[in-house]
Amino acid sequence: MNETTTEQLPPEPPQPKRLYRARSDRVIGGVCAGLGRYFNLDPIIFRIGAVVLAFVGGAGLLAYLAALLLIPAEDDPSAEPGGTPAGRNRWLVILGVIVLLCITWPFLLGGGLLLAGLLVPVAILVAAGVLVWWFVSGEGPAGDAGDVAKRAALGIGVLFVCGLISIGGAWAAAAGGETIVAVVVIAAAVIILAGAFVRPVRWLVLPALALALSAGTVSAAGIDLDGGVGDRDYRPASALDLRDRYELGMGQLVIDLRQTDLPSGDVPLEVDLGVGDARVVVPKDVCVATDAHVRIGEIRTFERDNHGVDVDLEDRPDAPAGVTRLLVKANIGVGSLRIGRSGPELDLDHGRFDRGPSFTDLGRNSACAS
Amino acid sequence: MRVDITSVVAGLCLLALGVVLLLDAGGTLDLRLGGFAPLACAAIGATLLASGMTRPR
C-alpha cells in the first residue's frame, strides 16, 4: 500500500508593494496614475501637483521626465518582482538619477535659476520629442527607459527635420515659389488622405504642416525677397530720376527727396519692402498723400502713427494749386514705414531713427490745403 | 477596412491650407495674417484633436 503524503508548502511571503507607471488610466506616461495607485489616492492630485510644480522653475517637468525614465512601466518584464533590470539601459537609469539630483541640488544648495534655465528647455525638448513621436507613430511613452529615450530621440529628429523644412518653405515662399509650395502641400494632403484608407502615412503630416504653415506665414506677412537684400539709399536729383516704384526684399530703404526738383501736381511714388525699414524724406513745400499697408509693424507719417498687425493708413489731403502732391503707395511686410521731414527722428546723415518725445519730430504735412 | 481618422482630418486640413496658398499665389486671394493665423490654429487643433481621439498603441 502506497502511502501518499501531501507536503504543506510554506505560504509565500507577501510581495513588497511596487511603484509602476500605470498602463491604464494614464494621460501621458502613466506616472501620476501609478503614484495614485501606489499611495491609494486620486491621480488628479498628483497631476495638479505636477502642473503647479512645472511653473515653479520647471521642477514638475523635470521630475516627471525623471520619473518617466526611472519608474518601470506596468507591462515592462523587468518591472516584475522577480525580473531583473537587464532589459533596461543602465546608463539611462544613471542619467535619470543625475536628472533627479539636478532637481534637488538647486533647492538644497541654491543657484537653481541658472540650472533651471538650462534643464527646463532640455526637458521641454525631450517631452516634445516624446509627444511628436507619439503623434507620428502612435507609440505612446510606454515600455522601459530605453524605449522612452529612443522615442524622444526620434521625435526630436522629426522636429529637427520639420524645422529645416519650415526654413526651406519660408525661403521658397519669400523667393516667389509659393505656387510650388502649394502644389507640394496639396500633393502631400492627397497622399495622406489616400493613405488613410489603405495604409496610414502619419509621418508625412508634420513635415507637410510645417511646410504649409511657414510658407503661409511668410506669404501672409507679405515678405518678398524679389527686390534683393541690403540697404538702398536713393537721392534723385530731378523728377526724371524719380522711379515710379522702389522695391527691396530685406533691409533699409531710404528715399530722400529733399534735393529733388519735383513738378507741381500729383507725383506717384510706390514703395514695396519685404522686411525692414522704409523712410521717405520729403521737402517742406511738398504735400504728401499716403496709402500704406504694413502686415506687421508700424506706419508713421508726420502726426499720424499706427502700429500692430495688418496696419493700414490712408491719408489723402488736397494740395493747393501749384503745389506738388506726392502720392505715396506703400506695401511693407514686416517692419516700419516713416514719411516725414528730416529732423531728430529722421536724421539720415547719422542714421539715427529713434522715437522722439513728440510726433512733430517728423514735421508737419503743412504744404497741403487746410 | 479601418479608416485612420487622424490621417483623414490632417489630409483635409492640409488640402485646405494648400488651396489657400495656391489662391494667394494666383492673386485670387489676398492672404493676411489676421485671416491665416486662425486657419493655421484650426488646422493644428483639428489634427491634434483627431490624434487625441485615436487610441494610442
* Helix/sheet category of chain A: alpha/beta
Count the helices of chain B. How many? Answer: 2
Q: Biggest β-sheet of chain A, characterized?
A: 6 strands, mixed
Backbone shape of chain A: elongated
Specify the helix fraction band of chain A.
Answer: 25-40%
Q: Sketch the major β-sheet of chain B.
A: none
Give the amount of beta strand of chain B, in percent.
under 5%
Order of helices and strands of chain B: HH
Tell me, rounded to a whole number, the average pLDDT of chain B: 85
Q: How many whole angstroms does the radius of gyration of chain B measure?
A: 14 Å
Mean of residue pLDDT values of chain A: 78
Q: What's the oligomerization state?
A: heterodimer
Helical amount among residues of chain B, as a percent range? over 70%
- Count of individual beta strands of chain A: 6
What does this structure look like?
The complex is a heterodimer of chains A (370) and B (57). Chain A has 370 residues and is of the alpha/beta class. Chain A is built from 8 helices and 6 strands; from the N terminus they run H-H-H-H-H-H-H-H-E-E-E-E-E-E. A 6-stranded mixed beta sheet of chain A has the order 1-2-3-6-4-5, with no helix packed on it. In chain A, helix 1 crosses helix 2, helix 2 packs across helix 3 and helix 5 crosses helix 6. About 4% of the residues of chain A have low confidence. Chain B is mainly α. In chain B, 75% of the residues lie in helices and 0% in strands. Chain B is elongated, with a radius of gyration of 14 Å. The two termini of chain B are 18 Å apart.
